[in-house]
């Protein structure tokens, strides 16, 4: 999985502000109500401890601070431990954290000590970016509302497929890894291999790959909504402008909020 860099996180305040506004416009819901409705949970002042972890590639500059910033704009009671790793864990427990947030290079988790619920960033990210597309109100006359193009069927894309299947979508998938695509389309009749040559248009596109510009122009229409946690960006600025794409793309905050709401009571 691609590791975030300080550069990816440097505009997280603007990114969160812009994406929250777009999500509220698309879903016609207040963002908090949107999160609550997905998991049927409510935030009740749980104390959240963020623990910097030095393993593997080590601490990512502003990673913990970006998480703290996100939780604070949602008025959550959060803190970053002064210590890292095991000492940081000890410090968080001594400071009565109800929820622990920490990430090494493979796993970014949220754990609720009270109800023992745990969430994984890849699952929570696949969930939130899919739900945004599912709950987007679009113009009536679109025949293919319950169709989605999913580009990238890695760990995040795989979770997205499950969410769309649960919502009875027809899913077109594309990935460089042909074997992976074959395995997945054999799972379910509602999952089809995307073929750009058919020049099919999509109003809903989900992308989660570590490559840039992965969305083919031929799939775009003027109303297309692109929902992507993928870094670098899945669609160029000029295509975004040319088709007036509604782009939901933010590096860490939305996935973090999804993790938190998934483990509340
Ligand atoms: C959770 C992000 C989303 C995309 N890639 C994932 C990533 O970069 N994971 C690595 C996170 C390492 C954090 C570091 C720290 O600062 O505590 N151990
Ligand atoms: Mg990408």
Overview features:
binds pyrrolysine; binds magnesium ion; single chain; 265 residues; globular; alpha/beta; six-stranded parallel beta sheet
- Could you list the spans in which at least 5 consecutive residues all have pLDDT below 50? none
Distance between the termini: 30 Å
Query: What ions, cofactors and ligands are bound?
Result: pyrrolysine, magnesium ion
Number of strands: 11
Secondary structural class: alpha/beta
**DSSP helical segment count:** 10
Q: Provide mean pLDDT, rounded.
A: 96
- Using the CA coordinates, give the radius of gyration: 19 Å
> In sequence order, what are the helices and strands, one letter per element?
HHHEHEHEEEHEHEHEEEHEH
- Taking strands numbered 1, 2, ... along the chain, how are they ordered across the largest sheet? 8-7-6-9-10-11
Kindly state the percentage of residues in helix: 25-40%
Give the strand content. 15-25%
Q: Major β-sheet, in short?
A: 6 strands, parallel
Shape: globular
Protein model, in words:
It is a single chain. With 265 residues, the protein is an alpha/beta fold. Helices cover 38% and strands 17% of the residues. The protein contains 10 helices and 11 strands. Helix 3 crosses helix 10 and helix 6 (121-134) crosses helix 7. The protein starts with 5 loop residues before the first helix and ends with a helix. The mean pLDDT is 96. The site of magnesium ion has 8 residues, from loops.
Topology:
Blueprint: H1 6-9, H2 12-27, H3 31-39, E1 47-51, H4 63-73, E2 77-80, H5 85-94, E3 99-103, E4 108-112, E5 118-120, H6 121-134, E6 147-151, H7 155-166, E7 170-174, H8 178-185, E8 191-193, E9 204-207, E10 225-227, H9 237-242, E11 246-248, H10 253-263
Parallel strand pairs: 1-2, 1-3, 6-7, 6-9, 7-8, 9-10, 10-11
Antiparallel strand pairs: 3-4, 4-5
Helix pairs in contact: 3-10, 4-10, 6-7, 6-10
Bound molecules: pyrrolysine and magnesium ion.
